[in-house]
Design a protein that fits this description.
Blueprint lengths: L5 E6 L3 H11 L5 E7 L2 H11 L3 E5 L7 H11 L4 E6 L4 H9 L4 E4 L4 H12 L9 H11 L2 H12 L4 H11 L4 H8 L3 H15 L4 H10 L3
Parallel strand pairs: 1-2, 1-3, 3-4, 4-5
Helix pairs in contact: 2-3, 7-11, 8-10, 8-11, 9-10
Length: 219
């Protein structure tokens, strides 16, 4: 995305929420809000029409909810990165969204700077799992499924090299390529190469799915 504006579609059925998000995002010179949608169906159409890079997608919307829209966007606009907007009361829905290929999620009380950071991370190909409230939600979601999924996850992770497992563990912590590189004393480009290799070996669509797999495996 270097040198190009990050094209964003905001999808939420509450006009005030959309207006607030637009105001925050457009305060950053690297982000352009190209369209707003009031439901999932409109979101799909607008993402395709405007070739959006990132979609901020609410879960609870009329006509078509966010989870259904996310599933359709995987085929209708596979290049678009989807960040799910949520509240603490929608934890199970959030896990489903991440498993379906969402690039991450944000709580609706997220600080403005974190919202901008999440959009930039998604546009750069990174997952956004914030180290605060978002990580807490993911921990709670994965806890109940760990026993069922843990053995399968460990078997899949066993195919990775030692260094690949180290990188995967840092993905599970929500670190960016740059932060992982500093932790492992590697260049960001090298970490990016490792991440691509890890996704291919594990059969994961994106970093979020790999991060959840790392947690299931106990890394």
């Amino acid at each position: 995305m270097t040198g190009q504006l990050i094209r964003v579609v905001i999808a939420d059925d509450e006009p005030l929420i959309r207006a607030g998000i637009r105001m925050i995002l457009t305060s950053d010179h690297s982000i352009e809000v190209v369209a707003e949608a009031a439901n999932g169906r409109e979101a799909i159409e607008l993402v395709r029409a405007h070739a959006a890079d990132v979609v901020l997608l609410d879960i609870q919307m009329p006509v078509m909810d966010g989870l259904t829209a996310l599933a359709e966007l995987r085929t209708a606009a596979p290049a678009a990165r989807v960040i799910v907007l949520t509240t603490f009361g929608e934890r199970e829905n959030v896990l489903r969204a991440l498993e379906q290929g969402g690039a991450g999620f944000l709580l609706k009380d997220t600080a403005p700077a974190e919202l901008i950071q999440a959009v930039r991370a998604a546009a750069a190909g990174d997952a956004y799992l914030s180290p605060g409230a978002t990580r807490h939600v993911v921990d709670q979601l994965t806890l109940g499924r760990a026993a069922v999924r843990g053995e399968e996850a460990r078997q899949r992770v066993a195919a990775l090299s030692g260094r690949e497992r180290e990188v995967l563990a840092l993905l599970g912590e929500g670190l960016s390529n740059a932060d992982a590189g500093r932790r492992l004393h590697m260049s960001e480009a090298t970490v990016k190469t490792y991440v691509s290799r890890i996704l291919a070996k594990l059969g994961c669509e994106n970093r979020v799915q790999a991060a959840l797999l790392a947690r299931d495996a106990g890394l």
